[in-house]
Amino acid sequence: MTKKWWHDKVAYQIYPKSFYDSNGDGIGDIPGIISKLDYLKDLGADILWLSPCYASPLADQGYDISDYYKIDPRFGTMEDMDRLIAEAKKRDMYILMDLVVNHCSDEHEWFQKACQDPDGKYGRFFYLRDKKDGELPTNWRSYFGGPVWDDLPGTDKQYLHVFHKKQPDLNWENPEVREEIYKNINWWLDKGLGGFRIDAIINIKKALPFRSYEADREDGLCSVEAMLKDAEGIGEFLREMRDRTFRKYDAFSVGEVFHEKPEEIQDFIGEDGYFSSMFDFNETVFGSSEKGWYDAKPITPDDYKKCCFEAQRRVGNTGFLSNVIENHDEPRGVCRYIPEGDVNDKSKKMLAALNLMLRGIPFIYQGQELGMENMPFSSIEEIDDISSKHEYQVALDAGLTPEDALNRIAGFSRDNARTPMQWSDEANAGFTTGTPWLKVNPNYTSINAASQMDDPDSVRSFYKKLIALRKDPEYKETIVYGDLEPLWETRRNLMAYCRQGDRLLFVIGNYRKYDQSVTLPYPYKKVLLNNYPDIDEEGKTISLYGYQVLILEM
Ligand code: TEU
Ligand code: CA
Question: Catalytic residue numbers?
Fold first, then answer.
């Protein structure tokens, strides 16, 4: 495999709106990010992915872009952005922007022009259909609820949006649309970006001609995914995009890909793949229900292990997955993957080690390194996220009481991860001197960066050690390129694997609160990391403490 500059990097996702507010308006901004670059460098992050900060009405928090060439004034200016890229470069760090090109905003000039002249050039930038009385062009349900079709204002047509109605889908079948997109990507890459995280990309290819599918809920609609399963030929778009943009710059690209088929992995992230990497969402999608969040099944430690290993096996050495515990669309991983009642610093560190030692590129989401937890929402009014609001309604429609509906969906709300970053125990967690746009998690007095920075036992210090281990010249080759083999795979509540490169490492996590022992095939050489001060061992048998994790050199 050809070595690439991103293989040995550690990435960190910034959700700009909630990261750090430099001017007291309650909204995080780019100058705020710049002021925290040293914090990120100290942690060991190399690649910084910024969720969208382009001009946007923020109907979906920036994933609805009204101008791809502008920074939204709430986040700063283009000069700030240029300064961020330059300041990152000074520190050997790379900036990734979020590429949101399945759709734009209904406030984008293209869409405005399509409304004015639906039969003209810009009408062809979108998927438009003639409006018929009492009948929609198809019965697809948008990801955020309701039909994917809405009236094109001022016309007798309807337009397609697989997400929110303020996110009209761009017509990738139209070469002029693709040209505009490539032009914009290259414009950004010319500024010196490291690359892009590519949003919702599997949605760009629709099954043509459009048709309805069997309804999967009482609303008579079907999930967009039913249509996507039927769509063929996305590879042609992705290959063209890669050749016209990323490849020319040796840029890093990571695709938000869901439900890829095993035979597609080579095409997506193999040596000559469309992307440098794609996220592993195997754990994320586990337990999801066609009915909605309220019906989702919780994930157990054994399920979690199975999901991770399954993804690792599927990809093998074909390419590099990007491994995540959480992101801006998910609850906090510690609250999801650690059984309720067991969430503490020990278990958080165990989860971190198990995840960061997998083969692939680790992506840490802001606050994950502090062990930030879900928000205790007490009312739907406290939730801003459009997706959560929709899922709450779905739960109500299914007959749940408002209290039950909130309880069932709260643990999945995207706002769990979107509460402001907890910098200190000062007012508003030190995120802003003003009023934060979204309420701060009340646990900021105990979970915050300031208190963890100098504490050698903090979750953050553990993350820092893990990242340093990945970069240690002695072990780097093995951790980055080594094979992964599960160990004691059928043992319950134990997640263990070895990484074999020029060294052999064992990663062993006791995924429960009670002790359990393992017997090594032969004595280990060295303890590289331990989330406890000691090891209870007798000969080759180790009695692991609750949620103990060990990284051993064999
Ligand atoms: O998410 C794509 C995606 O598939 C989402 O529907 C995801 O399943 C959902 O957010 C869970 O609630 C991307 C972005 O990451 C997300 O923030 C955007 O809202 C979405 O695209 C539209 O751009
Ligand atoms: Ca601000």
Answer: 199, 256
